[in-house]
Design a protein that fits this description.
Elements: H1 8-11, H2 23-36, H3 51-59, H4 69-108
Helix pairs in contact: 2-4, 3-4
């Protein structure tokens, strides 16, 4: 599947055991990763994809001609919301580990 090469397995190995995605789901997830590869950051984490990010990709012709723009925008934005939530949880867990390590090091001195 396309998304096996996107790095999602490195970031979220628990997804390896999920059911196969349909052709439709794989298509939108693939487009999401292409669009998200241009994602910006504000210094406090990843920025959400903007409607313009998604629209430009859609209008550039990198989609199926049968796609409805409203469905496409909503699908990609929904995937992005899930990604941002998972990313925030992962960042929070990593920060907690760093904080715990710093606390352990303080007590060793």
């Amino acid at each position: 599947m396309y998304y096996e090469n996107t790095g999602i397995w490195r970031d979220y190995p628990e997804l390896r055991d999920k059911p196969e995605l349909s052709e439709y789901q794989t298509y939108y997830l693939g487009d999401f990763y292409k669009i998200a590869s241009r994602r910006g950051s504000n210094g406090f984490g990843a920025n959400p994809l903007t409607w313009m990010d998604i629209l430009v990709f859609f209008l550039a012709g990198m989609h199926g001609v049968e796609d409805d723009l409203k469905d496409y925008l909503n699908s990609i934005a929904s995937i992005d919301n899930v990604w941002l939530t998972l990313r925030a949880e992962k960042d929070k867990a990593e920060q907690a580990k760093r904080d715990a390590e710093m606390n352990r090091n303080k007590h060793r001195r």
